[in-house]
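Table S2 (text version). Query chain:
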Amino acid sequence: MGIIIHAFKKCNILSLNARFRLVELLANGYHNSHMTKSQEKLGKKVKKLRKQKGLTQEGLAEKLNISRTHMGHIEQGRKSPSLKLLSKLAKALRVKVKDIFPF
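Corresponding C-alpha cell output:
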C-alpha cells in the first residue's frame, strides 16, 4: 500500500485517467477491482456444475487443456473464459452453454 501512496503523491506525472484509476484502486482494493459480479457468479456456477459431475479442478482443466490454476481463477471469478473455452466447458460438463450462465 505504501508504494501506491508514494505513486499517488507523484501523480503530477500521471495522466488524469491514471489518477482516477489509482483512486479507484485505493477505494475498492486492488483485488476486488479486477473482478465483476458477473465473473464471480459465472465462476460459482462452473464450480457447482463441476462438482455435480464429480470432477476435480485438475480433471476438468485437463479435459479443457488449460492449467489447474487457470481453472481455479475462472471459478474464483478472477478470469473470464473465452467464448471458445465456454463452449469446451459446456461440452466437458455435458450442459448447454446457456446453462453455465447464472443470470
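Notes on Table S2: The chain is about 70% helix and 0% strand. The first helix runs from residue 2 to 9.
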